[in-house]
Amino acid sequence: MSSRLITPHLTVKNVAASKQFYTQAFGFKLRYENLKDGLPVHVEMDYHGELALMFVPENVGGRPTLAPISFADPRQHTSYFYLYVDDVDAVAARARAAGGTVLEPPRDAAWGDRFALIADINGYHWGLAQTREPGFPTFDPRKQSSK
Question: Does 145 have pLDDT greater than 50?
Fold first, then answer.
């Protein structure tokens, strides 16, 4: 199964470290990795059975691409990915333990979600959200079947 509408395609500083971070912090699972001459040139990761993220290393294929951590202050706010999780506090703590930076600690936001903002190891921002809306689908990685 693929993403329903949109899938971020990022440039990362270090592919191995990025796979580890996204797995440990968010519970993403490796879906696909394309190697060229033994080096990763494209990675895809799933979140709850759907394609959630694709990434490539900096300067892949000779293209002058960089991860934000290579040129921007990780606290600089421009945009972020909004990721629903079952426990914002726990995911923010895992992200910090995996090397991320907590930009806004978990709090109850005015719009009703429990919310935190983190910068990952590549400088991308992730808004972690836990809804309190009845009937809204939430995800518990402990209940996910392994593929």
Answer: no
DSSP codes joined into one string, the chain = ---SS---EEEES-HHHHHHHHHHHH--EEEEEEEETTEEEEEEEEETTEEEEEEEETTGGG-----GGGTS-TT--S--EEEE-S-HHHHHHHHHHTT-EEEEEEEE-TTSSEEEEEE-TTS-EEEEEE---TT-----GGGPPP-
Cα 123 from Cα 53, distance rounded (Å): 15
Give Cα 50 to chain centroid, integer Å.
13
Tens of pLDDT along 65-102? 999 888 887 777 778 999 999 999 999 999 999 999 99
Tokens 């209940």 map to which residue? 143
- pTM for the model: 0.84
Q: What are the angstrom distances between the C-alpha of 124 and each of 65, 132, 141?
A: 14, 26, 22
